[in-house]
Amino acid sequence: MDYVRHIIKKFDHDVGCATLPTAVVVIDVIGWRRNTVSVKKSRRQVINGLSMTALALTFGRQFAYAAASNDKIVLGAILPLTGIASLVGNEDRRAMEFAVDEVNKKGGLAGHPVEFIFEDNQAKPDQSILAFNNLTSMHDTPLIFSAMSGPCLAMAPLATRKKVVLINAGAQADALTTASPYLFNTLPTVSDESNILAKYLVGQGMSKAAILFENSAAGINGRDSFIDAFPKAGGTIVASEPSQFGATDFRPPLLKLAAANPDVVLSTVTAGHLQLAQQYRQLDLKMPLAGTTLLYNTLLLADPASNGLIYTQIHIEAPADLNAAYKARFNEDMTLFGKQYYNASQMAFTAIRDLLAANKPITGENIREDIVHRKVFENLVKLTFNNNTATTQVDIKMMKDGVGVLIKSMD
Amino acid sequence: MLLSQLLINGLVTGCILGLIAISWALIYSTAGIFHVAHAGIYTLGGYLAWSLVTHGVPTLPAFIIAIAICALVGAAIQTQLYNRLADRQATPLVILVASLGTLAIIQNTIAMIYTTNILQFPLGWNRAVIGIANNSIRLSYPQILTLFAGAALCLGTICFTRYTGLGKRIRAVANNPFLADITRLRPRQTYTYVMAIASGMVGLCGILVSLDFGLQPYNGVLPLMTATVAVFAGGIGSTLGAFAVALILSVLENLALLVMPGEWGVAIAFGIFIVFMLFLPTGLSSLYSRR
Q: Residues of B numbered 187-226 whose beta carbons fall under 8 angstroms of chain A's beta carbons: which are they?
């Protein structure tokens, strides 16, 4: 029976018309028509049956939601739960679990409990495609949360084709802004942050920069953004050197960059941050190491090697009571990316609530439409969607003794 | 500063590659197996040591136990896999595929147990640094250990194969396994000893690298590939040759940074190999003729 329900629900999702009660009534009528052959029902019964069918077709959707108010709303999340980016991926997951439990304790979304199905992509685009197909085919998820630029860019064409909303709250490659009309980014791009960081650093007299970039989609995009932003801010790029994705020997490129005598070394490395900072200290490089949100991770922040590291970060704060509840459950404060994904979950809940209130089916197409029309989502931070990428406030911070100390806030 | 520091970094990396090359060459020249699973033992060494250290075993005993386990695993691969395949007249290609399978099993088991996260040894001293020549060269403790271990094990292997009974037996089996069998040198037993010794050596390499750069389950293949280049280019059966080429390759890869971007580092190593094979093909061809 569940399978039949699934098929009918999928039909409703794809075609956007009849729902479960409609189908049941139609099946009843067909059954009755078969019976007429042998039992010969009266004309009145035929008229009654047809009337019921017409009613069901007209109000089927409303009946459906009334009848299935306890139906679970299943959403997906494709995150790096293992692998070199798993630290952040698991922070995202914990925050999303926290958000979904919170909403379910309050009765769900208009009576519908919410479930997140998590898939591990190991930060790999190919694994992300498999996970995407699994979530959309097996679980019929209208919305999927994602992270990391490479995986998001790989899934974007699929999202367009299958009309499934992708919400990215962690990746920042510029290409994400135009990758798909179904992909929404809740944080600014690398270029936006690079411009802010370049302006600040040049303003502080650090006009000569060297770039350590990771040979990956996000890393190369970050390098290009700095190459564009630094001269615009009045500075110059004196050298750039690559490191391979997943490599943890940063000494050779760091040495070469240091030889160019920069005032600051900019990093677009997305993995192995701790090893990078430790080797930076071991080589006794005096110029500061700086980067965008890509450079942030909690393991690095907790290590003394991170002292003095300058970085930009999306301004997002969790209220004290929320953070306390989170800490009571996970024995840690809500991290930057934890807040991002908690906020993104709330954004998705808001859009779904809108659809339920308007008695619209929860499809990717309708969720997308709601986000585009609503534009503004306010939870931990105000997100304004003038296009597919939200605008929000960015802070400049310095890592010191395990804490990110605010230096300056910029819009 | 840049030149000297790059040079010393190249020497440190070269020592690791040299040790991998020597240990792999021991297996290849003696048992004739293209032992790809050696990369898995390399990774296993680091993870075993990490597990023991994190469970409170003092550092030195932990490293010795890890090396011993690596040696046992290597011996088990020889006796339970390669010997059985040899009994069934398996071709070298089948044995290579079996070795690749073993590598996949080791790596994926490690990834399942420890996850693919980058792990770090919870030791303080492995992050300490010594500055020499007015601080123009800075070496971490694991780097210094690697330099000493590389030199000592290279010399030790040369002395072992030349002057000890087992070493001479290994060379005899490597030169002519049929004659060795007739003269009751028990080639099969010798292969197991070789596999155990080589696996212990590569396990130590895995520990030294992990002390400096952390642990990842899939990090063994690239060093092994570079090491095999050194073995072929240096000449099969030549311990010093393989070690020297590994050092040269690594130093060149590092010094190349002075004149070109870092993306070209690996390409340089393999470019040198191609040049070697074009102009000095005897090493490789003599291998095939021996098989």
A: 212-214, 216
